[in-house]
């Protein structure tokens, strides 16, 4: 029986043979003369710190060690996953890979539920794939009936939970209902970039039951490693066998891999959990202080490392904060988020400065 992934993958992708890089082909020996590398390297390390890094060799064609460690980290929380994990250059590359793998330009479409992360539609537009938008309800939950009515014509449904920019999680039962309804038609992608701030809401455990479920993760948020560009794509083998055909020959640089492995080691995980707890404490304090301000209409409950605030002023709070040197995110371009500003949670001192600026607004 053909998998859903095999039905959706365009013929051009089905014919693809992964590029046979030197690392992919492999081999053993003591002279490595198969990749057109220099045997010696210019040294770029900081010798004063005892470092003399060497970068003349290509990295692992597929960063296997990172993927293994990340899957082990996930299995600690969710149990056996029944899926494969691949490291990618940030969650954005995972989005792009999925669209290029399972959508044919000018023929297929994806579905999104705005307001949500803009890269889903951007990646689709860049590949001449149509985007069907089914807006969230007033409570920022899914319009399940409207989504189900259009699943048959959709290759990929992207859901972000916790969602950016609304900061809420999607109801678990709604995701399950959509997984049931999409078994024969649509791959369901759940973007869990912010999941460490609400780990109990993860859908990873559903992957055993639903092989058409795909999960995207990242080290950019709770791990605090946005600059190294390391994310993860987690999917059933039937899905991954097609995605793997489009993965770049050397997707993760060695320095990135080394940092990622440290972050996923026991001490790294301990540090991540500690800073996550501290951020959540700061976030809840900041929310309580915001709710006392007359210019604030609503502070939406947050399951992320940011808060979404609806202000009752006629002037732009975003522009006002800029005059104070505080850069936030104006969400007024979203039809449902007029007069809304998204503020990331920083240190206690940063949030105090922001709060003081808002208190001084007249």
From TrEMBL:
Kindly state a single biological-process term from the GO annotations of this entry. Answer: L-histidine biosynthetic process
From the Swiss-Prot or TrEMBL record, give the protein name.
histidinol-phosphate transaminase
According to its UniProt record, the EC number is 2.6.1.9
Top EC class, one word: transferase
Query: Hey, which family's this protein in?
Result: Belongs to the class-II pyridoxal-phosphate-dependent aminotransferase family. Histidinol-phosphate aminotransferase subfamily.
Matching entries from Gene3D superfamilies are given as: Aspartate Aminotransferase, domain 1, Type I PLP-dependent aspartate aminotransferase-like (Major domain)
Q: Which pathway does this polypeptide act in?
A: Amino-acid biosynthesis; L-histidine biosynthesis; L-histidine from 5-phospho-alpha-D-ribose 1-diphosphate: step 7/9
UniProt GO molecular function: histidinol-phosphate transaminase activity; pyridoxal phosphate binding
Question: Which parts of the sequence belong to the Aminotransferase class I/classII large domain?
Answer: 85-354
Task: Return the PROSITE patterns for the record.
Answer: AA_TRANSFER_CLASS_2 (PS00599)
């Amino acid at each position: 029986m053909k998998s859903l992934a095999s039905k959706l993958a365009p013929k051009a992708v089905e014919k693809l043979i992964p590029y046979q890089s030197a690392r992919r082909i492999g081999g053993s020996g003591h002279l490595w003369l198969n990749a057109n590398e220099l045997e010696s390297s210019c040294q770029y390390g900081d010798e004063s710190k005892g470092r003399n890094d060497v970068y003349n060799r290509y990295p692992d064609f597929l960063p296997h060690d990172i993927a293994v460690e990340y899957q082990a980290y996930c299995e600690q929380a969710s149990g056996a996953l029944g899926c494969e994990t691949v490291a990618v250059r940030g969650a954005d590359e995972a989005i792009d890979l999925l669209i290029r793998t399972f959508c044919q330009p000018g023929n297929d479409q994806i579905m999104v539920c705005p307001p949500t992360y803009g890269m889903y539609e951007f990646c689709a537009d860049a590949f001449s794939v149509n985007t069907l938008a089914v807006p969230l309800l007033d409570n920022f939950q899914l319009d399940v009936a409207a989504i189900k009515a259009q699943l048959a014509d959709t290759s990929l449904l992207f859901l972000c939970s916790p969602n950016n920019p609304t900061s809420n999680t999607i109801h678990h039962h709604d995701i399950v209902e959509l997984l049931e309804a999409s078994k024969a038609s649509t791959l369901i992608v759940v973007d869990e970039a912010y999941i460490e701030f609400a780990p109990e809401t993860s859908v990873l455990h559903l992957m055993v039951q639903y092989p058409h479920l795909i999960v995207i993760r990242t080290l950019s948020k709770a791990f605090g490693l946005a600059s190294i560009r390391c994310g993860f794509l987690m999917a059933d083998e039937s899905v991954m066998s097609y995605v793997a055909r489009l993965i770049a020959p050397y997707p993760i640089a060695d320095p990135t891999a080394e940092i990622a492995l440290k972050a996923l080691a026991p001490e790294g995980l301990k540090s991540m959990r500690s800073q996550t707890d501290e951020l959540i404490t700061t976030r809840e304090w900041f929310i309580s202080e915001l709710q006392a301000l007359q210019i604030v209409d609503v502070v939406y409950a947050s399951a992320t490392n940011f808060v979404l605030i609806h202000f009752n002023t006629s002037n732009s709070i975003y522009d006002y904060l800029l005059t104070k040197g505080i850069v936030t995110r104006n969400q007024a371009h979203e039809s449902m988020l007029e007069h809304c500003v998204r503020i990331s949670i920083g240190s206690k001192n940063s949030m105090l400065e922001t709060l003081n600026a808002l208190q001084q607004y007249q």
